[in-house]
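Q: Second attempt. The first request was missing the SMILES, so the protein and zinc ion are both included now.
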Amino acid sequence: MAFSKDVQVEALVACGRCCCLCHKFCGPKIELHHITQKADGGADSFDNCIPLCFECHADMGKRDSHHPKGKGYSPEELRKNRDKWYQRKQASVSTNITDSDKQLFSDICEVFQPLKYTLAEYDLANGVKEDRFNSLTQLLHEEGNPFKEFLDGDLESGRKRLVVSAIRFKDYFNYHMFTHMNRLVPHIYLMSIYEIDYEAKLEKLFQEEANILNSLALELWNEYQDFVRLYRQRA
Ligand SMILES: [Zn+2]
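A: Got both inputs this time. The predicted holo structure:
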C-alpha cells in the first residue's frame, strides 16, 4: 500500500512541493517518503509522510550499520524538520513579498526571458554567437552575493534550484563548445583520419554532443518556468 490520495494532497500542499530537508522547489520532481518504513510497521498516514526531492530521498536508504559512514536521519529528526518546514510555508503564505524580492524576480526574468528561443527551441548544433549567454554568466557571477538572494525562504529555495541548473548547463557549454568563425559550436573530438568511417563517426560524436547541450538547455528553461510558477503562487 501507499499513501492515500488524501494524504498525498495534504502533504504536497503543506510543503508547497518543496523538499522538507533541503527546501528547494521540486514541482513534479518530488517523492513522498515513509518516515518509519513499512517493513518496520510504519503507517500510510500524514504523520508518517515526508515530501523529499530525489536527491534527499536517495540519501534515506544510505544507512548501512556495517559501514557507518556519516550519520543517517532518525525518524524524530525527519519529523521535526518536516514540521518546521510546514510551519514556515504556512507563515510565508500570510506575509507579503518585499519590494526588493519583486525587483530581484524581475531582474532574473530579464536574463531568462530573451533566452527562450535559444534554450527551448534552438538546435545548438548550429552554433551560437559568443555573447549569447553573457547576461546568464553575469547572473552566475553574482551567486553568493547576499544582495542577490531572496528574503522569502520559498523564493530563495526556488532561485537556488534554478542556479544549480544554470551552472550545470554553463559548465557543459564552456567545456564542450569552441569558437569557430566567431560562433561557438560543439566540440569535435580529435580522431585519426585513418580510422574507418571517420566522417560518419565524427558526425555521430558531434550530434551526441549537441544532443546533450540541447537537453541541458531545455532542462534549464523548464527550471526557469517552474521558478516563475513558484513566484506567481507566492505573489
Ligand atoms: Zn532535498
